[in-house]
Write a structure and sequence with these properties.
Layout (H helix, E strand, L loop, with lengths): L4 H22 L6 H13 L3 E4 L6 H10 L1 E2 L2 E5 L6 H5 E7 L5 E7 L6 E5 L6 H4 L1 H8 L1 E4 L2 E4 L5 E6 L12 H4 L4 E4 L5 H11 L11 E2 H12 L5 H12 L10 H6 E3 L3 H17 L7 H12 L4 E2 L1 H5 L4 H11 L9
Parallel strand pairs: 1-9, 1-10, 2-11, 3-6, 6-9
Antiparallel strand pairs: 4-5, 7-8, 12-13
Helix pairs in contact: 2-12, 10-12, 10-13, 12-13, 13-15
Length: 336
């Protein structure tokens, strides 16, 4: 990538637009800077986000505010055990044509939006959860043999509650892997709670206004993919993902002891794309190893599957990834 004056200007505009969007959302959302940045990063990368946290932390509000700050179509689906795939995708309906004859016409479901909030996704049955698979990966849905293309950009933000697990259906590994990142929403600090109270219990009710459109998001995504990454840094990213596999030579002791399956190649793709955007936001024109380390937790934590021993001992995938980051040398796979 040649760093011309035009390139510098484009990257500066990228940062300005990112800051503009972040600032607009921050009018409503208090704190959660890391969660907000990673959500916007996934949006620009063309991925999807899984938000996990206890009720009342603003997960749904974050998604609604993001939609308010964009000139994009937004839909919210409350996942429940009785939700059917047709409730998401839509179905063929018998309607009367202009000539009086009855014909089948496809009625689009709420899935046909640019920003889709899948609220409490683990409360729906696997049959309904799987209805999202084709949409998330292919950005299309197939009904009665006909494929319907979704409008771009298409961004799924799903939420789930880690506490009330009775009567829920954990997402299968194949669907988890289709999320660009998994973000853990934490409880706010006392000062942040004060600000939340100021915004929600006083007369003023702040609201975000649209500042970017879908075409600009797609332009930013294309620009991010042009950021170069050296062979050595890319191999380091590959090594981090290979080290999540218990049978690989780069494996650390916690991985060998507690992990059943490691991350897929989608993990490497997300790691590299996220690192490229991190580099832009840090005013650099190339990817550094630190960008990969920064992205490791959000993009890999949901792609590791713990074995029985790991689950029994209460080990988290974050703990395993932290050890991998310490164990894998910076020149890993340098001779490849």
């Amino acid at each position: 990538m040649t760093v011309t004056d035009e390139t510098k200007q484009n990257l500066e505009q990228f940062r300005n637009d990112f800051d503009l969007l972040r600032g607009e959302i921050a009018k409503v959302i208090v704190g959660q800077r890391e969660i907000l940045d990673d959500t916007l990063l996934a949006l620009i990368a063309g991925g999807h986000v899984l938000l996990e946290g206890v009720p009342g932390l603003g997960k749904t509000l974050l998604v609604r505010t993001l939609a308010d700050a964009l000139h994009l179509a937004f839909q919210r689906i409350q996942f429940t055990p009785d939700l059917m795939p047709a409730d998401l995708i839509g179905t063929n309906m018998v309607v009367e044509g202009q000539d009086g004859r009855h014909i089948f016409e496809f009625q689009k479901g709420p899935l046909f939006a640019n920003v889709l909030l899948a609220d409490e996704i683990n409360r729906a049955t696997p049959k309904t959860q799987s209805a999202l698979l084709e949409a998330m990966q292919e950005h299309s849905v197939t009904v009665a043999g006909t494929t319907h293309i979704l409008d771009e950009p298409f961004f799924v933000l799903a939420t789930q509650n880690p506490l009330e697990m009775e009567g829920t259906y954990p997402l299968p590994e194949a669907q988890l892997d289709r999320f660009f990142c998994k973000l853990l929403v934490k409880y706010p600090e006392s000062t942040e709670i004060e600000t939340i109270l100021d915004r929600t219990t006083e007369s003023e009710n702040p609201k975000a206004t649209p500042v970017l459109n879908g075409e600009r998001i797609l332009d930013m995504s294309r620009l991010a993919r042009t950021i170069p990454i050296s062979d050595e840094v890319r191999r380091y990213g590959i090594a981090l993902v290979l080290a999540t596999h218990p049978e690989h030579e780069l494996v650390s002791e916690p991985t060998k002891k507690y992990v059943r399956y490691g991350a897929s190649p989608r993990g490497v793709q997300a790691l590299i794309l996220g690192a490229k955007i991190k580099a832009i936001l840090d005013s650099r024109y190339h990817v550094a190893r630190e960008d990969l380390r920064t992205m490791a937790l959000p993009v890999l934590r949901h792609r590791l599957i713990l074995n029985f021993e790991g689950q029994a001992e209460g080990i988290s995938t974050d703990d395993v990834i932290a050890q991998i980051l310490k164990h894998v040398p910076e020149d890993a796979l340098a001779a490849a």
